[in-house]
Amino acid sequence: MTKSQSNPYEGLQRAFHEPKRLAIMAALIGTPSQEMTFTELKEGCDLTDGNLNRHLKTLEDAGAVAFRRSPGPGRPQTIVSLTKGGHRAFLEYLVALEEVLKIAAAAAKPQTASDSGALAKPVRA
Amino acid sequence: MTKSQSNPYEGLQRAFHEPKRLAIMAALIGTPSQEMTFTELKEGCDLTDGNLNRHLKTLEDAGAVAFRRSPGPGRPQTIVSLTKGGHRAFLEYLVALEEVLKIAAAAAKPQTASDSGALAKPVRA
User: Fold this and answer.
1) How many domains does chain B have?
2) Residue A116, phi then psi, degrees to nearest 5
3) A26/B108 Cβ within 8 A
4) A17 and chain B: CB distance < 8 Å anywhere?
5) For position B59, which CATH number holds?
6) Span B32-44, pLDDT tens digits
């Protein structure tokens, strides 16, 4: 974290920062079971099969998601799970994103610099 | 904005979302004159000549920055200016980013969903 403290923008993990992957991670982490079917993710995040596959590959390479086939009878489905490491790393990413937004928002309105605590409450309290 | 309202992640303009370009835009918007020399930007954002050139090209293509040569005597320098359109678009980006962060942060802690107003104060009041 030393690097990201000196340059907060370095703390933005690129695996999560891409908008569609951010949407995928937010969808997964917001699901109580921490998993969704491929079809649910595709529809929830407004992605094509190919795009979702590509983004999931990036997230899998980052250790953030894992896959399994749905058990039981019926047409098998791919189930995408958020890993524990992915959960933790995404929370860290959100903290880094909040920090960057705070800095950029403060820079954007120097006339109200004293108000730069606009995003005061941390993501991780 | 209709699209970004239905899917807030679509509101994240890619020209600004890349971490280094986000750093460049925040540096420029935080400077009272809204302009910096190439060298100041390079050092301030921890970039090489080649990387800064590449990112500035993307920002120029988006209409967010413009270039001029320093006037007067002495070694000429490239001065990078934030355009009015770039200023406005970056503020819009920050609002979109705050919205996405709010959604993702709320998803990440469903146990305290009633606290999802953590990032209550808008960037643009």
Assistant:
1) 1
2) -70, 0
3) yes
4) yes
5) 1.10.10.10
6) 999 999 999 999 9
